[in-house]
Specification:
The complex is a heterodimer of chains A (about 700) and B (about 550).
Chain A (H helix, E strand, L loop, with lengths): L1 E5 H11 L4 E2 L8 H12 L6 E2 L5 H13 L4 E5 L1 H6 L1 H9 L5 E6 L13 H4 L7 E4 L3 H16 L7 E6 L7 E5 L3 H7 L26 H30 L6 E4 L6 E5 L3 H14 L4 E6 L1 E3 L3 H8 L4 E6 L10 H9 L6 E6 L7 H13 L5 E3 L6 H4 E3 L4 H6 L1 H6 L19 H10 L6 E5 L3 H6 E2 L2 E2 L5 E3 L5 H14 L5 E7 H7 L1 H10 L4 E6 L34 H6 L5 E6 L3 H13 L4 E6 L3 H4 L6 H10 L6 E4 L2 E4 L9 H5 L10 H19 L5
Parallel strand pairs in A: 2-3, 2-4, 4-5, 5-7, 6-7, 10-11, 10-13, 13-14, 14-15, 17-20, 17-21, 21-22, 22-24, 23-24
Antiparallel strand pairs in A: 1-8, 6-12, 9-11, 18-19, 23-25, 25-26
Chain B lengths: L2 E3 L23 E5 L5 H5 L6 H9 L3 H9 L5 H7 L3 H5 L11 H14 L14 E5 L3 H12 L3 E5 L8 H4 L8 H12 L4 E3 L15 E4 L5 E2 L12 E3 H11 L7 E5 L3 H12 L3 E5 L11 H9 L3 E3 L2 E9 L2 E15 L5 E5 L5 E4 L2 E4 L3 E2 L16 E3 L2 E5 L2 H4 L4 H20 L35 H4 L12 H8 L13 H5 L5 E4 L2 E4 L9 H5 L5 E5 L3
Parallel strand pairs in B: 3-4, 3-6, 4-5, 6-19, 8-16, 9-10, 9-16, 10-11
Antiparallel strand pairs in B: 2-22, 7-17, 12-13, 13-14, 13-15, 18-19, 20-21
Classes of the chains: A alpha/beta (about 700), B alpha/beta (about 550).
């Protein structure tokens, strides 16, 4: 059936047709919509699968590995930082011979945090024994996902697969795609019934043991399976062509038979190169293209076959391996053609979007040269990127007027105007308010969330104090390192960790907990908008019961994480809750935290207009209603003593708070009554000294 | 130029993000300041800036509050005691818990100015024109005040031996102590106004040397009952009784007084009679709902043991040997509304009854004596030429019996018309602004709190004398009360917009707030949290 789909939707349709049984994917731009689409398909009854919402990419891959080990067909989707974070589990999956299919919307791996699509994420995992399929367009995505399951699950292979498409470039653009019929796919791809790994109390087996000297033999298994995969791929592609009418192979050779010049390309750039080849051929140039569709296993035979007669070869790379001068696929092409004297040149384009004019330029420059060169195409040292002009020493730099302008003056806020947060963002408001109490002596450590993305847009920054962004999961650890170093160097300043609920409750909980346990003097400011808002509203550990998010379409089920109790379990910490609508109360708590010589945790509940679904003008009113209904309780907790800062004279019914937010519009009367009961219970618990 | 390449992913001497990221371009709506008319200001017949003077009290500047009232009314001390305060009915706070005690606050600042011995001096240059004012009641005094402030030479002619009109000879001392009246009249004298008492003007031509004349002779002619026995000696009009009492300190009445009427005069008469030791009963031909008297007066009557009989009117006054013995009444029922808009009372056949009495005080309405003018002259505030004399009129003389505040407003309007005729000075335009509705007040910032209560002399302590009943409140209590004011439609400097803007786009300079439209994203939080409703979100042009 012909459908007009985005790349992410193509992924979802491929997974649906393949009848994946357990899905776990952690939100990350630009891959998030693929799993959101799957959530909707499951909610609509179109796919019978269990989707497990997890706390990080490590969790996502862990879930897939666990489910696959028990015999289910699984799916995960990620890129960039997420792929890097789940690395350990990638090796576990391939080591245990689990045929997980992992879709990657490829994206640059930070630091610095980039949003362009290169191949640094997928290609840097080329040693993890995952098959790697590179898609040129949406049609290939749907087809490759289906084929990936069949190939991975083949007894001769039993290795997991990456199905790689390009983030934003493909994931967020739309094409007409022929989506295969379910009945045909069912016939092509039977149910997954592994023989080598399963859970059966009547047949106990041990999986994943430690080995003494046998590791190399296990590695040889993977190595061999990768080799055998080549033929399996060819066979599956043939069967696919017979069933669905579209032919694929490990490579695609386009007009290479008589070509003198051959361009090697991977991914969407191949579409452009193909068009250009037709154009150049019109001019009589004998040029062709070899598209690498499969990178692992590397199609050595095909490369030799199709490139052997070329006079000049150009490889276009979107990833490099610093330390080796060539781009990654050029290294592998060179290795395959090591006996050939032909010049194999290389343009490294990284994540840049390439246009027809760029291909013309590349081709023109390349055809004029006979040497074998490696160059970065139109990428140089950006004058803005790392240059301070006119200075040859640090002292001059520090006295520069530009630097002086940034340094905050007494009484001035630490975060300037022009911050790119949404209109009415109360997380921004809360942090700004908090920082106004800090004067110059604050150093901020931050991990991914709404506020990290909006405060700086290279080469400009809105932060007027030292500001350090690490990754999503590591700020607790990085902050600890900074604290120790600052002490050693005698730098007197408040070290503040500004983190959202995602970072504190979920992905950063490990490092946060450890930092608390070690007792570093850090002020932890958690701006809690109660979901992963930066990636487009997905549920977090802090999302309240009944709230709709893209990953809890029917409302968040029960069992909420109690972060205050978790923090209190770490010994002497000053804990305080706060709300955007009570600025004086918040400032009082911040000032108290500054005066203490121990860690502090200030938890601010911040309404979010797009995530909570309300007109931005109502933000403060909603925050106030939260407190006036008892849903948000303002208190301080220190050394076992709990002080409630504000008790409304007359508690309003919680429905008044809920009905103002679109995210609660699906609640039934019974659910609202349940929430009211919980709120009442919580309030009396807090009043009697129990943390909630 | 030597270049130093700095490794890593840092922004060192970069410009702030604000230079590039003009988030103001995101907006669909922009906040604008839009002040509206406070309902109290709108309801005040004198056009007092009530919101304004309460704000000054809130800022602990009671003298500045007094000066502000004086810009529109010379009599805060008087009105703060006798005005029926229509402003309080319109007060938006009344929709939340209790209306502001505007009346009490006005009185507070006036008393404070008196205790601080503050008076006014005219700042205007002396003009050459001379204005004559006939009648020294509130309309005449108000006109004199505003003209004198503007530099005109004013002479006030008063027929009675004392200045004040109804303020002096009508309103009893227990409502308006004479020292307050004297002080506020002294303020007018201090502006250079000349007063001639005992000087009745019988003909307008007596004043032809004046450049303009303001006739404000009030309404002192009492209506007749038109019943047999009305000409008995012991039948006295309410205004006559009160005049005697207020000028001579005593009045001749018996021990069993019946007061006929339902307005303030009737009540003043009844309550005064009681203080002289008599028993008083009020008889009114309609019901309480139609009584024109001020609500608080009607309530006080009940406390002071004065019975009001509704739906009854006298038919006959029965006397013997020149002394009244009884009065016969007939019961009434209410029919369709008459010319005054009130339901017409209709006598019920055969329902007569008698009551013992030795005095009848009639207080059924007053009309004006305009015999000083030719019969065909229609007096207006805008003025009319009478045989070469510019004659203006105002107060009860033009409108019929009204409130003190109406007279004050009338006097000021006439003063502006006079100035306009003589010098072309502009006449005040009533500001046309949208009324500030209650719905736009953000009541979350106002904890519920009852209005301040004015302490009063107990009935036992007050009933045998003419001491002032209301005792006034301390300035501190006034400031607390002033904090209750919503300041509807006028910025209250609560700073909410400043504190709650997520993008630092609201700044304050010299008491005014400015929006930074380069960066304002139009979220609307400032508008929603504005406690007085002065920020409106306006759609940006496409």
């Amino acid at each position: 059936m012909e459908m007009f789909l985005s790349g992410n939707q193509c992924i979802a349709h491929g997974v649906k047709l393949s009848r994946a049984e357990v899905i776990s994917a952690y939100p990350i731009t630009p891959a998030t919509p693929a799993s959101e689409e799957l959530h909707e398909m499951v909610a609509a009854g179109e796919l019978d699968a269990d989707i497990v919402n997890v706390e990080s990419e490590l969790g996502a891959m862990g879930v897939c590995v666990g489910a696959s080990a028990a015999g289910c067909r699984t799916f995960n989707c990620t890129c960039s930082q997420g792929l890097a974070l789940m690395r350990e589990m990638l090796w576990a999956a391939s080591g245990m011979a689990l045929p997980v299919v992992l879709a990657i919307d490829s994206r640059e791996v930070g630091i610095p945090q980039g949003l362009l699509s290169d191949h640094s994420d997928s290609l840097s995992e080329r040693d993890a024994s995952f098959l790697q399929f590179y898609c040129e367009n949406g049609q290939e995505i749907v087809d490759s996902v289906i084929m990936a399951y069949k190939i991975s699950e083949n007894d001769k292979v039993l290795l997991p697969s990456f199905v790689v498409s390009e983030g934003h470039r493909m994931s967020h653009s739309f094409e007409l795609v022929d989506v295969p019929e379910q009945a045909k796919v069912d016939k092509f791809l039977p149910k997954y019934r592994p023989k080598h790994v399963f859970v059966d109390p009547d047949y106990p087996m041990t999986q994943g043991p430690g080995v003494m000297a046998q590791y190399p033999s296990f590695k040889l298994q993977q190595y061999q399976a990768m080799q055998d995969a080549k033929q399996v791929i060819r066979d599956v592609c043939k069967e696919f062509a017979q069933t669905f009418g579209r032919s694929y192979d490990l490579v695609e050779a386009y007009k290479t038979e008589d070509a003198e010049f051959i361009i090697v390309a991977i991914g969407s750039i191949a579409s452009l190169v193909r068009e250009k080849i037709d154009e150049y051929r019109q001019k009589g140039i004998k040029v062709g293209m070899l598209k690498l569709r499969v990178f692992r296993p590397f199609p050595e035979e095909e490369v030799k076959k199709y490139l052997s007669n070329a006079k000049k070869i150009l490889v276009i790379d979107r990833a490099c391996s610093p330390g080796n001068t060539r781009g990654i696929s050029c290294i592998e092409i060179k290795s395959a053609l090591q006996k050939s004297p032909v010049a194999i040149s290389n343009y490294i384009v990284s994540g840049r979007d390439i246009s027809g004019m760029d291909i013309d330029e590349m081709f023109a420059a390349w055809s004029k040269r006979d040497d074998e060169f490696v160059e970065w195409f139109k990428i140089g040292f950006d004058d803005r990127v790392a240059t301070i002009s006119g200075y040859d020493n640090w002292e001059k730099l520090l006295k520069d007027e530009k630097v002086q302008r940034q340094v905050v003056k007494e009484g001035e806020g630490c975060l300037g105007k022009g911050t790119a947060s949404c209109a009415g963002c109360l997380s921004l408001h809360a942090i700004r308010l908090v920082l106004s109490a800090f004067d110059k002596k604050a150093v901020i450590v931050n991990n991914s969330g709404c506020l990290s993305a909006v405060g700086t847009i290279y080469p400009l920054t809105g932060w007027k104090v030292p500001f350090y962004f690490f990754t999503y999961s590591h700020a607790g650890a990085a902050a600890s390192g900074m604290e120790v170093a600052m002490k050693r160097k005698g730098i007197k300043a408040d070290l503040v960790l500004v983190a959202g609920d995602g970072a504190i409750f979920d992905i950063g909980l490990q490092t946060f907990s450890a930092a608390l346990e070690r007792g570093h003097r850090i002020i932890y400011l958690c701006y809690d908008n109660q979901a992963y808002m930066n990636t487009g509203v997905q549920k977090s550990g802090s999302t309240p019961y009944g709230a709709r998010t893209k990953t809890t379409l029917a409302g968040r089920p029960g069992r909420i994480k109690n972060i205050e109790q978790i923090v209190a379990a770490h010994g002497d910490v000053y804990i305080a809750t706060a709300s955007s609508a009570y600025p004086e109360d918040l400032l009082m708590k911040v000032k108290k935290a500054r005066s203490l010589d121990k860690p502090s945790f200030i938890h601010i509940i911040c309404p979010c207009p797009p995530g909570w679904e309300y007109d931005p003008a109502l933000g403060i009113e909603i925050a106030r209603l939260g407190v006036e209904t008892g849903s948000v309780i303002l208190y301080e907790y220190e050394n076992g003593k709990l002080t409630v800062n504000y008790i409304p004279e007359k508690m309003k019914p919680v429905e008044e708070y809920l009905k103002k937010q679109g995210r609660f519009h699906n609640l039934t009367k019974a659910q609202i009554a349940e929430i009211q009961k919980q709120v009442d219970e919580n309030f009396s618990l807090v009043r009697s000294g129990t943390l909630v | 130029m030597a270049k130093v390449y700095i490794r890593g992913a840092g922004i060192h001497a970069a410009d702030t993000i604000a230079l590039m990221n003009k988030t103001g371009s995101w907006r669909y709506f922009r906040p604008v300041h839009e002040e509206k008319m406070p309902p109290c200001n709108n309801a005040c017949p004198a056009g007092n800036n009530i919101q304004g003077f309460i704000k000054l009290i809130r800022e602990e500047k009671p003298l500045d509050a007094w000066k502000l009232i004086k810009e529109t009314s010379p009599f805060p001390g008087i009105c703060g005691r006798v005005c029926p305060h229509p402003c309080e009915k319109e007060c938006n706070r009344g929709k939340y818990d209790e209306a502001m005690a505007i009346h009490t606050l006005e009185r507070l600042v006036a008393d404070y100015a008196i205790s601080e011995k503050v008076t006014e001096k005219s700042k205007a240059a002396q003009r050459k024109e001379k204005i004559a004012i006939v009648g020294s009641g509130p309309a005449g005094l108000s006109c004199a005040y505003f003209l004198a402030k503007d530099g005109y030479r004013v002479t006030v002619f008063e027929a009675l031996p004392e200045i004040g009109g109804m303020l002096r000879v009508g309103i009893p001392k227990y409502r308006l102590p004479r020292r307050i009246l004297d002080k506020e009249i002294a303020d007018i004298k201090a502006l250079g106004v000349t007063f001639k008492t005992g000087a009745r003007i019988k003909d307008i031509n007596e004043l032809k040397e004046y450049d303009a004349v303001f006739v404000a002779t009030g309404a002192h002619v009492s209506g007749k009952l038109h019943v047999p026995g009305e000409d008995e000696a012991a039948v006295i009009s309410g205004t006559e009784f009160l005049r005697q009492l207020n000028l001579d300190g005593k009045a001749k009445i018996g021990k069993n007084v019946i007061v006929v009427g339902g307005g303030n005069t009737a009540i003043d008469a009844a309550r005064s009679a009681v203080r002289l030791g008599s028993k008083a009963t009020i008889v009114y031909r309609r019901t309480r709902d139609e009584m024109p008297a001020v609500e608080e007066e009607i309530e006080a009557v009940g406390k002071e043991g004065i019975e009001i009989i509704y739906l009854a009117a006298p038919t006959k006054i029965i006397a013997q040997d020149g002394k009244i013995k009884e009065v016969e009444f007939v019961r009434m029922k209410l029919g369709a509304p008459d010319a005054s808009g009130r339901k017409r009372p209709i006598p019920i056949e055969g329902s007569t009854f008698k009551m013992k009495a030795d005095t009848v005080i009639t207080a059924i309405g007053e009309s004006s004596d305009l015999s000083l003018l030719p019969k065909d002259v229609k007096l207006t505030e805008k003025g009319v030429n009478v045989k070469g004399i510019q004659v203006f009129g105002g107060g009860d003389a033009v409108t019929g019996a009204g409130r003190v505040v109406d007279a004050i407003a009338s006097g000021r309007r006439a003063a502006r018309f006079i100035g306009n005729v003589l010098h072309g000075t502009p006449v005040e335009e009533k500001q046309v602004k949208e009324l500030a509705p209650y719905e736009e007040i953000n009541t979350a910032y106002f904890p519920r709190q009852a209005a301040v209560r004015m302490p009063e002399l107990s009935v036992a302590k007050r009933i045998s004398n003419f001491s002032e009943i209301s005792r006034g409140i301390a300035v501190e209590k006034g400031i607390i009360e002033a904090k209750r004011c919503f300041s509807c439609g006028v910025c209250r400097e609560c700073n909410n917009c400043l504190y709650f803007c997520p993008d630092i786009c609201v700044s304050k300079k010299d008491g005014t707030y400015e929006f930074d439209y380069e960066f304002c994203k139009g979220c609307g939080i400032c508008s929603h949290e504005c406690c007085t409703g002065v920020i409106r979100m306006v759609q940006e042009a496409q």
